Amino acid sequence: MPPTDRMLTGAIAANPGRYDGAGEYRYCRTCDAIFFTRAAQPDTKHDEHNVVALPALNQDGSDRLSRAFKVFIQRWSETRRDEIERFAQRRGWELAMEHADGGGALSDEEVAQWRQVIEAELKRLVAESRALLAD
Ligand SMILES: [Zn+2]
Question: Is the full-model pTM beyond 0.70?
Answer without folding.
Answer: yes
